[in-house]
Amino acid sequence: MATTTLAPRAATYRQRSWLYEWLTTTDHKKIGALYITTAFLFFLLGGVFALLIRTELAVPGIQLIDPETYNQLFTIHGTTMIFLFVMPMMTGLANYIVPLQIGAADMAFPRINALSYWMVPLGGILLFSGYAVGGAANAGWTGYAPLSAQGGAGLDLWLMSLVLLGMSSVLGAINFLATIFKMRAPGLTLMRMPMFVWNTLVTSVLLLFAVPVLTAGLMMLFIDRNYGGGFFDPALGGNPILWQHVFWFFGHPEVYILILPAFGIVTEILPVFSRKPLFGYKAFVFATASIGALGFSVWAHHMFTTGAVFLPFFSFFTFLIAVPTGIKFFNWLATMWRGQLRLDTPMLYAIGFIALFLIGGLDGAFLAVVPFDFHVQDTYWVVSHLHYVLVAGSVFGIFAGLFYWFPKMTGRMLDERLGKFQWLLLFVGTNLAFFPQHLLGLDGMIRRIVDYNNNPGWTEWNFLSTIGAFMIAVSVLPFLWNVFVTLRQPKTAPDDPWDGNTLEWATTSPPPPYNFDALPPVRSERPLFDLKHGAVAAHAVALPAQRGETHDETRADAPEEVLGEPIEGHEPQVAAGEETPQVSEAAPDALPHEERPRTEPKK
Amino acid sequence: MPLVGLRKRVRWLSASSLVTAAVAVAAIAAACAGQGTGVTGDQPPGLFPVEPASEQAQYIFDFYPVIFWIAVGVFFLVEGLLLWIVFRYRRQATDVDLPSQTHGNNLLEVLWTLIPAAIVAVLFVFTVDTLGKVERTADSTDQPDLIVDVTGFQWQWTFDYPLQELSFTGSGNTGPVMAVPVNETVRIRLHATDVIHSFYVPQFLYKKDVVPGRVNEFDVVVREPGVYAGQCAEFCGLLHADMHFTVEAMTRSDFDAWVTQNQQAEPSLPPPPSDATTVQLTAISIAEGFEPTELAIPADSPWVVELTNADTVAPHDFGVRGATPEGDWRGDPDAQPGGSATYQPPPLAAGTYEFFCTIHPNMVGTLQAGQ
Amino acid sequence: MTADSQLVQVAHVEEDSHAGHPQQGVNTALLGMLLFIGSEVMFFAGLFAAYFNARASALSLGQPWPPEGLGHIIEPGLIPIVATIILVLSSGSMQWALWRIRKGDRTGMNRALGVTLLMGIVFLGMQAYDYYELLVHYGFGINSGIYGTLFYTMTGFHGAHVFGGVIGIAIILLRGVAGQFSARHHVAVEAVSAYWHFVDIVWIGLFFTLYFLK
Question: Cβ of A178 and C142 within 8 Å?
């Protein structure tokens, strides 16, 4: 058995001081925890900025925030939420979970992993240090030139912070791709990977190809601002529209970077809490890849009103991208159809995600109608759309993932009542805050303004939206209390509290530093399900092979005789919680390494 | 998972669904109450755009219900399915065995790929068609009935009528007024001198960006006389929120009268008394303000300001806060870049005042009247 | 062999093949470098996009490109051509170094790396001299309108990447002289070589675009 050989190893682990350990760790689990915590702090900070914005906008007239401060507020709010909250949070969850889900001991490049993390708080400090030098950036998170060529040092700091955070993301993307391609457990072919891993893969490809374009643009802006460059200055032969092309070529893949991990989380949760496999796994993979690819073809739909883009092309591809997204929705519904739903908090967030991301997605379809976009571009319609997809989308996905994987990461179960209470507040608050903004946009209320005229109905809807924003803020309190109270409990969570399907549940909660004592055999996309529900698993194993499943050549495949048959000696004699399989010699790959029959000379 | 809390879960779900339904109903009721006649109408906002005031806007307004009702249909279909699923397929006490482990269904998957694809294809065709109608007029070789050159700059608008030789620059946050005849093609040409702005009139359901180094243009045919509010819609810096303007559509005869009235020479200012104090002032730029920033004049005496505009991009003018019983005194006309203007503010009682540029109110200075 | 090293095989990255087991697919560290190169390609793509956008804008408005008065400044004269030849040759010597170490010839590799390093430094020197000529003789700088901005930005960032490559070559040369590479363990040389070829290819694109296509 594994334990006898591993125990001495565990006993020789040098104990380092808590601070030194956390500052110098290269363990993906600790780095993941650092990412998640840092990102959550920025979520709170960005949220405070949002509350200030919504407080000012509750009624017409300027009450407490002057125009310059307001412009800085929404710039920093957007930049913080995107680059310091959602992206690091998704990276943190992926950092923790992806190696576990593929049965690896760590990421491919652990030290680069640590470097990637530490660039995040540094980037945050750079961004906010604008306040110490006369004013933070104030040109919007999109930093359109020539406006962004004006302004003081705060804008240079914004720019540098984004270059640094971009580098962090690219290094992370390289790490995830190398890990996913090279470090999967035996039997874990690409078409058996968990959906969260697939979404991380596509997100990483998007990051790899999109972020450097942003970096190029930021360099161009820096040169214009500081060295008399003429990229965006018409007086020097430059073109302001160039900035928008370069920015949105990054910016549009960026929004998929922000949402695909949430798709992945939701797609993990639905099968587990419906007790059914994901409906249409292959279609899901192709839909994800299509969204990633198409995401590079639609950038100029942010520029319809510039008069400088070929409108039909971008309208077409924007409409087209609705198709793979729609496929996902139907696959999600079909996964739940005729299932046995357990409505625990992770599932509530996943369902809430489906219910509300739909609205954000439909908003986007409206925007593909170019003449309609002429009316609502730069109005609160767009603000409503982006907040539905980001709050009802990414944030719901994030909370779903946090509640789902909290037991695995900390060894404790979050309180369900507090979780549901938070969910209710967040669900109602999100709709209150952002649905009225559709109406305001249709009525012509533009965005990025500190004040608005007292037009009929505008005050009422703005006021309601502010109430919703405060409701969202209040919803964070039960979550914080939940985490605080739960972390004081002893680590009693089982290995597999949710009756999960994937490999992260095949080890303790939390996992040991090396992740796995032994890996179960991987014969489908639900290795743990197969392990637990053997008789049914035989049927489940047969199906993927019959559907012409492709196999990845870089990994040794299971011997042919194992596919399509029940694994000998692998009937469900496992009690709940026992992971070690009793396997026969017919399937040597299923054994932990140290127990395999020796067939070749050792080195 | 324990089945004991099932009822509780059902209660939570019911509560949240009811709340959502209530919000949705309220929103739809509000929407049906009024479809929003926008910024100058008297209807609150609704789920439909503002009442269209131009020919081009009408095309967009007519197309909107197509996409709206498709979206509503999809919304109720998906949400309905979701609610059904959540209530019908909750785990029961009797659910011990696993449900049927369906991995997929090729026919269903093909259908729900092709049907949405067909829907978006149709929407795309309609989009291109509507777009052609809205933008077509701008590409036609017919001469427009009126040309207006719009210049947007931080943070004000100038409307130039090249053929009528008229020019209006706005002041404060109400901005200038663009008079246009109804039912005639007005070509609006957009010029920017500093950063990107956007010319947006909600009731035209239309905006176009105002980009430095590029002249965008579009045609509009306004159908009803009226006053239509407009605003800069591309974030352009400090006073973006104040960059308003108005389009006033009137009958052709009223328009001609308006043109004639404005073309008449402005009555010249009576020459200042010979003992008037002359103050020299230079406007440097929006960011750098005036030079000097402190002026001194004798109290209760006539005085004159000779403003030189050293700015290369923006016009400036002169105003004094609290100089009249009604409030601020605002000078006319503006000094164009590289040009100059003379102002005759009223005599001021002893005290300290703030002077400012009415177009760029961040440009300020202190005026000391008397000792 | 203890159970520990069996675990190593499960959990750790294999730098090169152990125990005669054939490597499956691209080496992980090399994969990381190739992905990084992919991202850098996109960085330069952004800069090239700026160039072609400016050029197309000017030409579509009937304006000359290069802009008025600047057409004769960026010419494929002696210095740029010699610099290009040197960089291309350095890619050759880099590849030679890689072939040598794959055969286990450490000395051959070190010599070839030394030649590559030298050529890389000479390229940078020639680039710096070219900049000097342009700035002092023509007064042509990064602030000489969009054309100047583009020229210096693109060649400047390329030069920075060459500099990074020179550092990399220096490091593997030092490691090579210290005897750290063998026929089976030299992934750092593979990685630096890939990066150096990338730098060379970008230069060929730049050279063609800036000096010939114009």
Answer: no
Residue appearing with tokens 């005036």 = B290
CB pairs under 8 A between A and C: 145
Please report where in the chains the tokens 């005050």 appear, as a residue.
A459
Please judge whether C146 and A230 are an interchain contact, meaning their C-beta atoms are less than 8 angstroms apart.
yes
Range from A136-145, A499-508, B306-315 carrying the lowest mean pLDDT: B306-315
A21 touches chain C (CB under 8 A): no
* A217·C153 Cβ contact <8 A: no
Instruction: Decide if A136 contacts A75 (C-beta within 8 A).
Output: yes
Domain CATH number, residue C86: 1.20.120.80
Which range among A152-156, A168-172, B172-176, C2-6 has the greatest average pLDDT? A168-172
Mean of the per-residue pLDDT values of chain A: 88
Closest-approach residue (CA) in chain C for A179: C28
Give the number of other Cβ atoms within 10 Å of residue C50's Cβ: 26
Assigned token pair, B142: 């017919």
Least confident window among A379-383, A455-459, B83-87, C91-95: A455-459
pLDDT at A90 over 90: yes
* Set of chain A residues whose Cβ sits within 8 Å of the Cβ of B112: 326-327, 330
Domains of chain A in sequence order: 26-487 (1.20.210.10), 503-603 (no CATH)
Taking the CA atoms of residue A57, residue A59, residue A65 and residue A68 in that order, the dihedral angle to the nearest 10 degrees is 60
Q: What value of ipTM does the predicted structure carry?
A: 0.89
Q: Assess whether pLDDT exceeds 60 at residue C24.
A: yes
**Residues of chain A neighbouring B50 (CB-CB closer than 8 A):** 442-444
Measure CB to CB from residue A340 to each of B95, B117, B126 and give the nearest one: B95
CA distance A291 to chain B (A): 14
Instruction: Assign A7 a pLDDT band (cuts: 50, 70, 90).
Output: very low
Residues spanned by the domain of C147: 76-214
Q: Where are the alpha helices (DSSP H) in A369-518?
A: 370-376, 380-387, 396-410, 416-442, 458-487
* Per-residue model confidence (pLDDT) at position B330: 85
| pLDDT per residue as tens digits for the range B140-150 | 557 788 999 99
Whether pLDDT at A454 is above 80 = yes
| Average pLDDT over all residues of chain B | 85
The residue of chain B with its CA nearest to that of A440 is B45
Classified by CATH at the fold level, domain B12-91+105-139 comes out as: Helix Hairpins (1.10.287)
**pLDDT, tens only, A304-355:** 999 999 999 999 999 999 999 999 999 999 999 999 999 999 999 999 999 9
Q: Judge contact between B63 and A371, C-beta under 8 A.
A: yes
Against chain A, the chains showing at least 3 CB pairs within 8 Å are B, C
User: What architecture is the B146-263 domain classified under in CATH?
Assistant: Sandwich (2.60)
- A462 to chain C nearest CA, in Å? 40
From the number of C-beta atoms within 10 Å of its C-beta (0-12, 13-18, 19+), residue A484 rates as: exposed
CB contact (8 A) between residue A593 and residue C9: yes
- Domain boundaries, given as residue ranges, for chain B: 12-91+105-139, 146-263, 277-369
Q: Which of residues 433-472 of A touch B (CB under 8 A)?
A: 435-436, 438-440, 442-453, 455-458, 460-461
Give the H/E segment covering residue B226: strand B226-232
Distance CA A380, CA A442 (A): 8
- Fold match, B146-263 / B277-369: yes
**CB within 8 Å of chain A, chain C residues 72-91:** none
Q: In the prediction, which pLDDT does B301 show?
A: 86
pLDDT tens string B103-115 = 999 999 999 999 9
Contact flag A147-B236 (C-beta cutoff 8 Å):
yes
CB contact A219 to C (< 8 Å): yes
Burial A529-564 (b: 16+ CB within 10 A, else e): bbbbbbebbbebbbbbbeeebebbeebeebeeebbe
What is the homologous superfamily of the domain B277-369 according to CATH? Cupredoxins -  blue copper proteins (2.60.40.420)
Residue A105 contacts B, CB cutoff 8 Å: no
